[in-house]
């Protein structure tokens, strides 16, 4: 767990957060031992911003990895309150991670290990689209 958190903190150093000043880093640990970082990137048109955890997971998918290749996800911030994925990230993670993939959350004063199943109960997923 230590290495994935270290990599997430390294990613946080690259966050671009001129509006919120809230820096977030994320890291996907793959089963093949590779680490994929992500950082939040803000934009004056807030809807165009992208969260760190989506950047990391999308990067892994862009390299050809899929949910079964992901061993864990870490999300860290420099805030006092525990960092948690926003609603959009929860929806994305619900589809792109396995239900039991560990998600390590850490802020300057708090930490927790969870799963997407705990973060997004009763998720809208592919089964929800069936008539």
The sequence of SSEs as H and E is: HEEHEHEEH
Number of helices: 4
Shape by Cα distribution: globular
Largest sheet: 5 strands, mixed
Widest beta sheet: strand line-up: 2-1-3-4-5
Query: What's the Cα radius of gyration?
Result: 14 Å
Stretches with pLDDT under 50, minimum 5 residues: none
The secondary-structure class comes to: alpha+beta
Structural account:
Helix content is 27%, strand content 21%. The protein is built from 4 helices and 5 strands. It has helices at 2-12, 52-62, 87-96, 116-119, and strands spanning 24-30, 35-39, 70-77, 103-106, 111-114. The longest helix has 11 residues, at 2-12. 34% of the residues are buried.
What is the gist of this entry?
34% of the residues are buried. This protein has 4 helices and 5 strands, in the order αββαβαββα. It has 131 residues and is α+β, with helices and mostly antiparallel strands.
């Amino acid at each position: 767990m230590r290495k994935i958190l270290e990599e997430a903190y390294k990613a946080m150093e690259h966050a671009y957060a001129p509006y919120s000043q809230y820096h977030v880093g994320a890291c996907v640990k793959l089963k093949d031992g590779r680490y994929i970082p992500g950082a939040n990137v803000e934009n004056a048109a807030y809807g165009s911003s992208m969260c760190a955890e989506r950047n990391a997971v999308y990067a892994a998918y862009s390299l050809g990895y899929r949910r079964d290749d992901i061993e864990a996800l870490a999300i860290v911030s420099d805030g006092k309150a525990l960092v948690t994925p926003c609603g959009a990230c929860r929806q994305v993670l619900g589809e792109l991670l396995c239900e039991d993939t560990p998600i390590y959350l850490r802020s300057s004063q708090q930490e927790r290990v969870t799963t997407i199943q705990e973060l997004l109960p009763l998720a809208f997923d592919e089964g929800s689209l069936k008539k």
